[in-house]
Design goal:
305 residues, alpha/beta, seven-stranded mixed sheet, six-stranded antiparallel sheet, 7 helices, 15 strands, 26% strand
Length: 305
């Protein structure tokens, strides 16, 4: 078949490479436009654009799937559109342009966590199992029939970035098999079963830590918002990031109070304390919590103050 592949971030690259090494022709790779990166805000192609260039594949850059993008894709006469984290909605008439429509690799077990941030929302909610699903794209958000899925047990302490990387590798061969099945007529899809939950894109406030909450809830939030938008609180009125924390066996502390316990730096919560592993004070880089604590002028810092 002739494919159009749509994707933007690095998690889409394993799927692009899997399809590029298969029997089908990738007529074009659709990705979002160059974005300013770094302190100098240098315009930089997306990770998928860079991978497509390395593979020698034609590239279409579009931040909106408007009439111009639709016309360019229709001119390719694709048999199937394939989406992995493109970052935009496919609407009619583009939705019906490929002969077999569009399929999407989504990083959850649908219908749980429909939306832009399924892995992040799963971790924040404390899910222990997630997965990858390949489904038929329809007008409604992530609501199409599912061709295939694979479960994934979330390792303890894993961040959203780590889980996304794992699902990207698991999902690539799953997606390739579905594409092969559509090509030879053996692919079978089924309606989604169960009550849908939504996974909207995270905002900065989703990373805010409330140390009056229980320790487990705080650990789930830290995992879900790492690395973006990042778990944060305040210290002396300035932003303070918590990059990594783990459970601690130590005497209770008031919520937000930081203290040394042996060689560990712990912080109080609404239940058991947490061990601070890596932190980032305002205006500084990431550092070990012990190094930060030893450099403080006060012996009783309080996070959230």
């Amino acid at each position: 078949m002739r494919l159009v592949f749509a994707g933007t971030p690095a998690v889409a690259i394993p799927s692009l490479r899997a399809l590029a090494s298969g029997p089908h022709e990738i007529a074009a790779v659709l990705t979002r436009g160059d974005a300013p990166l770094g302190r100098k805000r240098v315009l930089t192609p997306s990770p998928v654009a860079q991978a497509a260039d390395e593979l020698g594949l034609p590239i279409i850059k579009a931040d909106r799937l408007d009439t111009e993008a639709t016309t360019a894709i229709a001119a390719l006469e694709p048999d199937l559109g394939v989406i992995v984290a493109y970052g935009g909605l496919v609407r009619e008439p583009l939705l019906s342009t490929p002969g077999h429509g569009w399929i999407n690799l989504h990083f959850s077990l649908l219908p749980r966590w429909r939306g832009a941030a399924p892995v992040q929302r799963a971790l924040i909610a404390g899910d222990r199992v997630t997965g990858a699903s390949v489904f038929q794209l329809v007008a409604a958000l992530d609501a199409g029939d599912v061709f295939a899925e694979e479960r994934y047990e979330i390792p303890a302490g894993a961040t959203s970035a780590e889980v996304l990387d794992a699902l990207a590798e698991i999902g690539a061969p799953l997606l390739a098999r579905v594409v092969d099945g559509i090509a030879d007529g053996t692919a079978v899809s089924a309606p989604q079963q169960g009550e849908p939950t939504l996974a909207p894109k995270l905002a900065l406030e989703d990373g805010a830590l409330d140390f009056t909450r229980d320790a487990e809830t705080l650990l789930h939030r830290i995992a879900g918002v790492t690395p973006e938008p990042g778990a944060h609180t305040t210290l002396d009125g300035a932003r303070f990031k918590v990059l990594r924390a783990t459970p601690a066996e130590a005497p209770p502390l008031p919520p937000g109070r930081v203290a040394a316990s042996g060689k560990e730096v712990i912080v109080g919560t609404g239940t058991a304390p947490l061990r601070l592993e890596t932190v980032q004070p305002a205006g500084k880089g990431a550092m070990a919590a012990g190094d930060w604590f030893r450099g403080l002028r006060t012996s009783e810092p309080v996070l959230g103050a």
